[in-house]
Structures are given as structure tokens and as C-alpha cells.
Design goal:
Layout lengths: L17 H11 L10 H24 L4 H19 L23 H19 L2 H7 L5 H22 L2 H14 L15 H10 L7 H22 L2 H13 L5 H13 L6 H19 L3 H12 L11 H10 L3 H30 L12 H8 L3 H13 L3 H18 L7 H35 L1 H21 L9 H21 L4 H11 L1 H6 L4 H13 L9 H10 L3 H11 L1 H12 L12 H23 L8 H14 L4 H24 L8
Helix pairs in contact: 1-12, 1-25, 2-3, 2-9, 2-18, 2-19, 3-4, 3-9, 3-19, 4-6, 6-7, 6-8, 6-19, 7-19, 9-14, 9-18, 9-19, 10-11, 10-16, 11-12, 11-13, 11-15, 12-13, 12-25, 13-25, 13-26, 14-22, 14-24, 15-27, 15-28, 17-18, 19-22, 20-21, 21-22, 21-24, 22-24, 24-27, 25-26, 27-28, 28-29, ...
Function: Part of the tripartite ATP-independent periplasmic (TRAP) transport system.
Protein name: TRAP transporter 4TM/12TM fusion protein
Main location: membrane
């Protein structure tokens, strides 16, 4: 039996209440907030969720099924469950509906029919013999067309219910483009496709709904999300928080820095920004507010830090696993490439938090508020074993899902036999159920993105958009080249710079309406080729759109992580989102650095240590300058002219052109002179208690 909390020694005032964290996550994360269900329906849904987790756990350890069958079983569960747990409208979240003739088990007949229709439509393709399927691609039967059209309709509705309107609208626009190609203007014109041809391509091939996006979710993402749930339940999250508090809590603005370090560590086992926000934020946000941080700033710190969970190895987010398929690279390569950019993200938030704490005179945590790290490790050291084994299996070269299988297995064993925090069988089943919850929204979104990818491969529109982007960037570079000195900015560098700027803006705008994973897939399909035309390595191009896509979780009006943190802090959501975006400006700069200096990713073709350290130091200095400018503080409060110079210096420092870097360094000099002079004249700043 688990040891009651009252019997455990109080190791830290930051004692993680996992039940409360799960409740907060369901409250603020729309993708796992289910409608209230009657008891029988709740047991049915719970059983199906556990079955979905057990299916993936078994296949991860004992062998995947054939491609179409595996993806078909996964999507059948996902779409069937979506119609049972997500209501047609927001009113369905209010209270449970009583069972009746038209609402069996409290769920409407329409939802039951949609669930059944989705399962039938999905299961049709995997049941077709492979030899027969090969002949039917390009020559579908009437049954294929009808069931394919049915799947497209129910898929769009399932995605609307689980992640909102924007992604289905984007998919509909792409399908309209495929159907009305001859009517498109200029370079976008194409021969067009009939409804039958479009359904055939999206339904019967692996270029559409059953494509890479769905496959990655069904073979990689699910397993690592399940591992993260189990790792948190056995106490690894608490150990990470204790370590973060011990490392960072004593310094100025302590709880905010604990939030950053805690989110970085927790991000190692959770690829979800919202899960990271509510779990770590349930402890750090109240502590920050008590210390004197404004509510919106406290919420922004946590949400900005927590978005790093999707870019922090070894778990990362769904997009990282998609890179394996898109780039045909081992996951260890993706992990290595992500290390330095992830560090830079957290460093960027830390810099601004530090300057904010110094500017407002906020203290660190007192000795009695700090955890006893020795006691924490004595209690929770077994919880580290599954993570170490998982990383070890990955580094040896085995498949990610096999690594996740052994990680989950060891989590269960540690949970069942750890006397200090023992899991019951019912808690194991709850973890299986909760792990599957994350699969529903992301599974529906991945399948819908398959529609977009399918249209791109059918029409070739991706290359046309790439041509438009690069041509526009070249024209802009040509105009600016007549104004700027050639020795500072070469024409090729300017063209690439403007292409990156346009790509980044589109990523952010797309992120305002669709989830990170969907954003990455679309941009990797459409925008990454534009960077490839300009000579950017594929892994660098994909990391660029990946990092800008992650900003979706803190970019209003979606900003799921920011809104979750705002709800916990009692702050204005929009103000929180804007502040979180400002705190993440370091993440905005970093992708430009590793495009112009790919050595920062460690695994690129022409990697050199000299190029790496040059880019690394320039990036840190640029992020520091930007943080000082945005925070209004460096050594003392900054003046307006200093902020302008620091922003210009930050931009110039991250561009690895010798002259621009030298000019950036020179711009910092007068700021430092004034700051040091006034620091010597100023009395010590009071520290709040």
C-alpha cells in the first residue's frame, strides 16, 4: 500500500500533489477534458482506453503489426473514443446526461453512429489483402470511395471536437485546392483531381490519412507519453522538482528559477507543454506570487519554461519522433541535435527572470524552504532507474518503442515494489487509462494533417510555395542589398535571412490556430523545402520549423500552456500569453543561429568545434542582450537608447558574419560603460522578504 503523506517526512514545501496536478491538467487542457459520463459509460470508456494502452505496450515489446493494420487499429480506437468522450458543443461539458432511448448510456445516438461509422471506415483498408490493395490504388471500388469519403467527414468532425476548428478548415482548403486546380491563379495552377481520385489518394495509400504522421503517433509518441505518465506517478517528477529547488531556489527570485530548472527536468519525461505547466506550476506559481511576482508574470514564467518540454531530450514531443521518419535518421541523432537549442531556450527564460528579480528586488528561498536533497534521493532514487535504462537502450541503437517498453516495464516494477511510494494495481490501470487520453486529440490531428500532406504529394503545391517564398526573399534581399554594405551582409545571406523570417512568421501564425505537431508537419511539408533550395541541411530546416511551431503553446489566441498557467494564477490569459512570448524570445533567435551556423546542432555534415564555440558564445551573448533589453534591467535599469542598442546588438551577434558580429559587440560597449558607472554610484537595491 502507498505510504500516506501524513506518515512521510516533509522533505520539501514543494510536495507534488499528483491528483491535484491531474485535475488541473484536465481542467485546462482541452485535448484531455472529457465530457461527464454516466457510470456505465465511464467504465466502458475507461476499459477501451486501457485496452488501447495495453495494445501499444504489447506491440512495443513483442513486435509491431504490419503498417496498415497497426495504424488502422490505433485510428479505430482513437476516432471511436473521440465521439464518446468529446461532445458536439461546449454545452456538453456542463453535466452528465441521463440515459434515454435517444441517449444510450447518456451518449446521443448520433455520437454512437459516428463512432461506429468511424471504426467501420477505418477498419476497411487494413482488412483488404495487400495484393488486392495494390491493384485498387488508382482504381478504387464504389465501396472504397464511399467509405473513404465517410472517413474524411468523420475525421474532420473528430478533429473539430478534440482540437478545434482551424485544422479542419485548413484541411478543407487544401482539398478544395486539389479539386479546383485548373481555376487557381499563376504558378498555383494544376490539372486538378476528381472526388474519386482525391479519396483514393487520401484513403488507400500511405501518402494520406494512413501516412507518416499517423504512423509516428501510433508507433513512437504513444509509448513515450505512456512512459512519462508512469514516471511521474512513481515519483520521478517530485525528485526532479527537489533537485531544481536545491540548485536554483536560493538565488534571487528563487521560485521562478526553480520553475525553469524544474520544467527543464520534468520536460525530460513529458513531451506535453500543458502537463509540464500544471504539474510544475501547481507548486511554483503560488510560490512566485507569494514572493512578490505579478500574477501574469508568474504564469508566463511557468508556461514559457514548460514549452521547453517539447524540445528537451530524451522524450521531447511528437514532432521529434516525426523527424525520424521525415529525415530517416536515428533518434539518437535527433536527441544530440536538440541538446544545445534546448539549453538556449531555458537560458533565455532564465536571463529574463534573473533580470526581473534583480530589478524588483525579489529574494531567493530561505533555508527552511529548501528541500533536503539527501533525503529526497534516499526516498526516490529507484525512480531514476527506468529513465537511465530507457536512455541507455536508445544510445545502444535499439528502436525508440522498445526503449519505451522497457522504461514502462521498469516504472511498473518500481511502482509495485518501492516501499516508500508503492503503486496499487488500480493505480497502474489508471496510468494506462490516462496515458491513452493523450492519444485521442493528437491521433485525430495527425490523421487530419495526413489530408494536407496527401494533397501536397498529389498536386506538388509544396514546391510551388517554396519557389514563391524564395523568389520573394531574393527580391527583398536585392532591394536591401542596395542599402546595406555588401561586406556586412552577403546577398545569399540576406536571401536566406528573409526566407527564414517569412517562414518563422508563417509558423507563428499557423501556431495561433493548430497544435504544435500539426503545425510542424504542415510546415515541414511546405516550408522546409524552401530552405532546402537555399542549401540548408534537411535536419537544420526541420529543426527551424519545429522550434517555431513549439511557440504555438504560448502564442495567443491558442496558447494552451499560457492559458493553463493563467487559470492557475488567476491572471489575465492574453496578458500571460504575451508575456510568455516575450520570455521566449530567446527561442526566436536560436533557430536563426543554427541555420547560419549549423555546428550548433552538433550532428551536421560540416561540424567543427571552432564553429560550434563561436556560435555558442555569440548566441549566449545575443540572448543576454535581448533579455536585458526586454526586461529593462542589466546591472542597473536600462534606458530607452540602451534597449535599442541591445536589441540591435542581439540581432547582429547571432548572425555569424564577422563584420556584423564585431558591430554587435561594439554596440554593447557604451551600454556597459553607462551600466557599470551607474552601478558604482547606486546604493544596494533592497531585497523583499
Amino acid at each position: 500500500m502507498p505510504i500516506p503523506s501524513a506518515e512521510r517526512p516533509p522533505l520539501s514545501p514543494m510536495e507534488l500533489d499528483e491528483a491535484k496536478a491531474r485535475e488541473l491538467e484536465e481542467q485546462f487542457d482541452s485535448e484531455i477534458r472529457f465530457r461527464p459520463l454516466a457510470p456505465i459509460a465511464a467504465r466502458l470508456v475507461g476499459g477501451l482506453l486501457v485496452a488501447l494502452s495495453l495494445f501499444h505496450y504489447y506491440t512495443a515489446g513483442f513486435g509491431l503489426l504490419s503498417e496498415m493494420v497497426h495504424r488502422g487499429i490505433h485510428l479505430s480506437f482513437v476516432l471511436g473514443l473521440v465521439f464518446l468522450v468529446f461532445p458536439f458543443s461546449r454545452k456538453g461539458y456542463d453535466k452528465p446526461v441521463s440515459a434515454s432511448l435517444w441517449r444510450p448510456l447518456g451518449i446521443s445516438v448520433l455520437d454512437w453512429l459516428l463512432a461506429i461509422g468511424a471504426v467501420v471506415a477505418v477498419a476497411h483498408v487494413p482488412l483488404i489483402p495487400l495484393d488486392d490493395l495494390a491493384f485498387r490504388v488508382g482504381n478504387p471500388t464504389k465501396t472504397d470511395v464511399v467509405l473513404g469519403a465517410l472517413l474524411i467527414v468523420v475525421l474532420l468532425e473528430a478533429t473539430r471536437r478534440s482540437v478545434g476548428w482551424p485544422l479542419p478548415i485548413i484541411a478543407l482548403l487544401f482539398m478544395a485546392y486539389a479539386l479546383y486546380g485548373p481555376s487557381m491563379p499563376g504558378i498555383l495552377i494544376h490539372p486538378g483531381a476528381t472526388v474519386s481520385q482525391l479519396v483514393d489518394h487520401l484513403y488507400l495509400t500511405t501518402q494520406g490519412i494512413y501516412g507518416i504522421a499517423l504512423g509516428v503517433v501510433a508507433t513512437y509518441v504513444f509509448h513515450f507519453v505512456l512512459f512519462g505518465v508512469f514516471a511521474t506517478r512513481i515519483g520521478l517528477g517530485q525528485l526532479f522538482l527537489d533537485c531544481a529547488a536545491w540548485v536554483a531556489g536560493r538565488y534571487a527570485g528563487g521560485p521562478a528559477k526553480v520553475s525553469i530548472f524544474g520544467s527543464a527536468l520534468f520536460g525530460m519525461i513529458s513531451g506535453s507543454s500543458v502537463a509540464n505547466t500544471v504539474t510544475v506550476g501547481s507548486l511554483t506559481i503560488p510560490a512566485m506570487i507569494r514572493l512578490g511576482y505579478k500574477r501574469h508574470f508568474a504564469a508566463a514564467v511557468e508556461s514559457a519554461s514548460s514549452t521547453g518540454g517539447q524540445i528537451t531530450p530524451p522524450i521531447m514531443g511528437a514532432a521529434a519522433f516525426l523527424m525520424i521518419e521525415f529525415l530517416d535518421l536515428p533518434y539518437t541523432t535527433i536527441i544530440l541535435a536538440a541538446i544545445v537549442p534546448a539549453f538556449m531556450h531555458f537560458f533565455g527564460v532564465l536571463v529574463q527572470v534573473h533580470f526581473e528579480a534583480k530589478r524588483t528586488g525579489l529574494r531567493g528561498m530561505r533555508a527552511d524552504e529548501m528541500p533536503d536533497l539527501k533525503e529526497a534521493f534516499k526516498r526516490d532514487w529507484p525512480t531514476v532507474i527506468p529513465l537511465i535504462v530507457l536512455i541507455g537502450i536508445l544510445l545502444v541503437g535499439y528502436t525508440p518503442y522498445l526503449a519505451a517498453f522497457w522504461g514502462i516495464t521498469l516504472c511498473i516494477l518500481v511502482g509495485l515494489f518501492n516501499p516508500r511510494k508503492r503503486m496499487s494495481v488500480s493505480e497502474v490501470l489508471e496510468s494506462l487509462r490516462d496515458g491513452a487520453k493523450y492519444a485521442l486529440a493528437v491521433g485525430a490531428a495527425a490523421a487530419t494533417v495526413g489530408i494536407v500532406v496527401g494533397v501536397v504529394t498529389l498536386t506538388g503545391v509544396g514546391f510551388k510555395i517554396s519557389f514563391i517564398v524564395t523568389s520573394t526573399a531574393a527580391e527583398m534581399a536585392s532591394w536591401f542589398g542596395t542599402v546595406l554594405p555588401t561586406m556586412m551582409f552577403a546577398p545569399q545571406s540576406l536571401t536566406l535571412l528573409f526566407t527564414l523570417v517569412m517562414t518563422g512568421i508563417v509558423c507563428i501564425l499557423m501556431g495561433c490556430g493548430i497544435p504544435t505537431t500539426a503545425n510542424y508537419i504542415i510546415m515541414a511539408t511546405i516550408a522546409a523545402p524552401a530552405l532546402g533550395i537555399l542549401g540548408v541541411e534537411p535536419i537544420v530546416a526541420h529543426f527551424f520549423v519545429f522550434y517555431y511551431g513549439v511557440l504555438a503553446d504560448i502564442t495567443p489566441p491558442v496558447a494552451l500552456a499560457a492559458y493553463a498557467a493563467a487559470g492557475m494564477a488567476g491572471a489575465d490569459p492574453f496578458k500571460t500569453g504575451n508575456t510568455a512570448f516575450r520570455l521566449s524570445m530567446g527561442k526566436v533567435l536560436v533557430p536563426f543561429v543554427f541555420v547560419f551556423s549549423p555546428s550548433l546542432l552538433l550532428v551536421t555534415a560540416n561540424f567543427t568545434w571552432s564553429a560550434f564555440f563561436t556560435a555558442f558564445l555569440g548566441c549566449m551573448l545575443g540572448i543576454t542582450c535581448l533579455g536585458a533589453a526586454l526586461s529593462g534591467f542589466m546591472l542597473v535599469r536600462t534606458k530607452l537608447w540602451e534597449q535599442v542598442l541591445l536589441i540591435l546588438a542581439a540581432i547582429l551577434l547571432v548572425v555569424p558574419e564577422l563584420y556584423s558580429s564585431l558591430i554587435g559587440a561594439l554596440l554593447i560597449a557604451p551600454v556597459l560603460v553607462r551600466q557599470i558607472r551607474d552601478l558604482k554610484r547606486s546604493p544596494p537595491m533592497p531585497v523583499s522578504v
